[in-house]
């Protein structure tokens, strides 16, 4: 008997990478799902294991997942999409007997609120000063330029430099903006996996040499204890169990500081897997209650990415009511 795993978000780079990783294991049967019948990752698995789901924002999303759990006798559900995670994380009981391989609702909520995140991580000494735009921001003695961005943003939407006091006073107050110290240095992404007790198993820093639609498509991993320890401290502060992507940027003094946490599989996962940390496979074992190593080492290695056309029969294409990608950034 194999373990039956459903991976959603099959149209995104993270979904594709998770599916590819899990297909290498002979002890798993991998089902792929997306809201869009044109999602490429659907066609990586055998035809009888392809599924359509409603959009994560749809009221029927969680009930539809739970129907799949029953019909396909699923043991594990992995979602690679933020909006889906938000919808399901408080309702994981409804997926029983399948297990949802995702961090706790609390970890997810603190990660998706950049103000709460900075406050939670203040004790690590690696969070920039962060306050709401308005009176709180006017009370801080900033070194200008400072930086402003939406408290709950994604995909770099709504980010801006705050050049001086006048610009600070002019910030709109109806966009949920936060103001923080400018981090003018190099930016890194660190893929982190923590075990069931919250202990960090691997933290793999990588550069984002080229970025397309918010996803790093070229870059390299690097051994840097300070980056690894900073990301691990953040993961521990938010009580991470499972996978997250911790983004760091150097401050004026060159110290790596916290930008944000994306509490899900990153689109650049193939690099981290090639470096020796097969996060999807570890996540499966972790949420199935199997032992995983206390520490997994990684190598320094680089990646570039190209597109590949997958040719399928016309009648293979699943017909979905919904098209296009959900917000995967
Ligand atoms: N404090 C900051 N100083 C300088 N640049 C920043 C700062 N915060 C964010 N940025 C820039 O804005 C981008 C998006 O911010 P981030 O916090 O990652 O939010 P998201 O990716 O969810 O939009 C970052 O990749 C970085 O380039
Ligand atoms: Mg970001």
UniProtKB/TrEMBL annotation:
<protein>
    <submittedName>
        <fullName>ATP-grasp domain-containing protein</fullName>
    </submittedName>
</protein>
<keyword id="KW-0547">Nucleotide-binding</keyword>
<feature type="domain" description="ATP-grasp">
    <location>
        <begin position="115"/>
        <end position="288"/>
    </location>
</feature>
<dbReference type="GO" id="GO:0016874">
    <property type="term" value="F:ligase activity"/>
</dbReference>
<dbReference type="InterPro" id="IPR011761">
    <property type="entry name" value="ATP-grasp"/>
</dbReference>
<dbReference type="InterPro" id="IPR036291">
    <property type="entry name" value="NAD(P)-bd_dom_sf"/>
</dbReference>
<dbReference type="InterPro" id="IPR052032">
    <property type="entry name" value="ATP-dep_AA_Ligase"/>
</dbReference>
<dbReference type="GO" id="GO:0046872">
    <property type="term" value="F:metal ion binding"/>
</dbReference>
<keyword id="KW-0067">ATP-binding</keyword>
<keyword id="KW-0436">Ligase</keyword>
<dbReference type="GO" id="GO:0005524">
    <property type="term" value="F:ATP binding"/>
</dbReference>
<dbReference type="Pfam" id="PF15632">
    <property type="entry name" value="ATPgrasp_Ter"/>
</dbReference>
